[in-house]
Write a structure and sequence with these properties.
single chain, 83 residues, mainly beta, six-stranded mixed sheet, 12% helix, 43% strand
């Protein structure tokens, strides 16, 4: 994101394989751009993420990332997680 500069100043969209997406707002400080904590927390909660999960972010378009979610055992989550 640092190399993209001004293209990421406002927000990014995170999309998962089952076509849900989250708009995450960014804030800038002297060290760079950071996602607003509440937006990230919503993404984590909605996807029932654990500390051992692995996320793979693929840049698809300006401000748009495809996110693939893998469990600790390497199994990819391909549908919306159920509580």
């Amino acid at each position: 994101m640092r190399s993209a500069g001004e293209a990421f100043v406002h927000r990014v969209v995170l999309c998962v394989l089952w076509n849900n997406s989250w708009q995450c707002w960014l804030q800038q400080d002297k060290n760079g751009l950071f996602m607003v904590e509440e937006d990230w927390d919503e993404f984590v909660d909605d996807n029932l993420l654990d500390t051992d999960d692995i996320l793979l972010f693929t840049h698809q378009d300006t401000m748009y990332f495809q996110v693939r979610i893998f469990k600790k055992d390497g199994k990819e989550i391909i549908s919306a997680p159920l509580e």
